[in-house]
Each structure stands twice: as C-alpha cells, then as structure tokens.
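Q: I have 125 residues here and want to know how they pack in 3D. Can you give me a structure?
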Amino acid sequence: QVHLDESGGGLVQAGGSLRLSCTISGHTFSRYYSGWFRQAPGKKREFVAAMAWSGANTYYADSVKGRFTISRDGAKNTVYLQMNSLKPEDTAVYYCAASSLIGTMTTSPYDYEHWGQGTQVTVSS
C-alpha cells in the first residue's frame, strides 16, 4: 500500500527554521497533488500549503504565506516544506498528504486519500 513518511520536525526557537520532508513509497501513480496540514492538540486539522504535481502552482494559507515554501523532488518521490521565521503558533503535528484523484489543488483534507503519520514541530518563545 501507499506509504507517506514525514521527517524533519523538532524543537526550535521562535524565528528559527525547519525543513520537513515527506517521502512517498508503494505508489503506482506517477502524478499527484501534494499538501501539508497541521493539527494542534484540541484543534481542527488546518491547511498549510498545496502544490500541483509539476510544482508550477502553489498555494499557501495566509498564516504562513511568505514564511513557508512547498516544493517537490519528483525523482526522489519527496515533498518538502521549508519553514522560516517560525512562531510559537506554528506549533503542531504536521502531516503530509497526497492525491492522485483530484484535478486541482485543494485546501480540504477530505480530498486527499493518502496521509503520513505526522511529525511534531514545537516552537518556543
């Protein structure tokens, strides 16, 4: 079955940076849309960023625009989320998601059929 594996989370000071990686394996599809979501304890899963399979089009939540960058290395089957100027409110478990079924970028978690297990990002003041 399809497996998504996130890595790169950790504890950082406010203003610091992290790069999250999501490696996709076991898939039979060659093209897919990618998304990053985050979820803090007691809160709903929140959209962060999305990208078309080619990487030509990206979309970001207003809360992270200008600070986060989503990218992809197709040859490595890996999606990245570069996070700069981190704030305490960025603290959450970050999830990578992928879909080979949708025809456009989407901010809804219900549209993605493949999910990783999540990686913890904690930003201290």
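Q: Anything worth noting?
A: The mean pLDDT is 94. Residues 66 and 106 are 19 Å apart (CA to CA).
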